Amino acid sequence: MCFELMNLVELYIGSNNIVNLPKDLLFSNTNLETLYLGSNKLVSLPEGLFSNNRKLQILGLENNMLVSLAEGLFTFNKDLRFVYLESNNLKRLPKDLYLNTNLITLDMNRNQFICCLMIDFKDWASNQTQLTYEGTCTVLNTTIDIHSFNTTTCIIPGWSPWIKSSCSTTCGDGVIISTRTCDNPPPSDDGLKCENVQHHAIVQRKDQLDNKSGKNSIN
């Protein structure tokens, strides 16, 4: 199913109990400026759904069951001005929704946003002069107005202590591998874990394990 109307400027298909949308639904609607999908039963939107709608300015997605919006969904929608996301189940926003667009109004009320997943948005929003946005987010099991959220309360993931392996040989030159992971402290409340590992290799004699000389490398 697709709407093969190239000159279509406005499309209202709200309140139709729509559960999912085909990726090519709007492919031919290159002049679309207003799209209303509110009051359906959408849980997700396919990647590339809006890729041909480069003139899109108004998007209504309120009163659905959206759990997430894929990164890259709004890459080509630089003219987007008004976005309505209220009454969904969103926890975070895709960066391209705000970094690639010129938003004037963003309604995020009645979602499940996690404050510490909204740091980039808050940093961006603080530099906008014409943006109006509304919504709440949760931090430390408390729901607050997103305007009052202080990003400095979020714990920035750090490195765990180095953990040394045993020497790879029992005598002579060997290699000790030290490893640390980016999980200190572990994430909580749906926070993200930075997936990274560092290895530190020290080439030295078995009887000099406490000697800090040797060839070092970090990967």
Summarize the structure.
This protein has helices spanning 95-99, 119-125; strands at residues 10-12, 34-36, 58-60, 82-84, 105-107, 132-134, 136-139, 142-145, 163-164, 173-181, 197-205, 215-218. It has two domains: 1-154, Leucine-rich repeat, LRR (right-handed beta-alpha superhelix); 163-218.
Q: What does the largest sheet look like?
A: 6 strands, parallel
Q: How many separate domains make up the residues?
A: 2
The fraction of residues assigned to DSSP E strands is: 15-25%
Q: What is the string of helix and strand elements?
A: EEEEHEHEEEEEEE
Q: Say how many strands there are.
A: 12
CATH architecture of the largest domain: Alpha-Beta Horseshoe
CATH homologous superfamily of the largest domain? Ribonuclease Inhibitor
Radius of gyration: 24 Å
| Helix and strand composition category | mainly beta
Report the principal-axis shape: globular
- Order of strands, main sheet, comes to 1-2-3-4-5-6
Distance between the termini: 50 Å
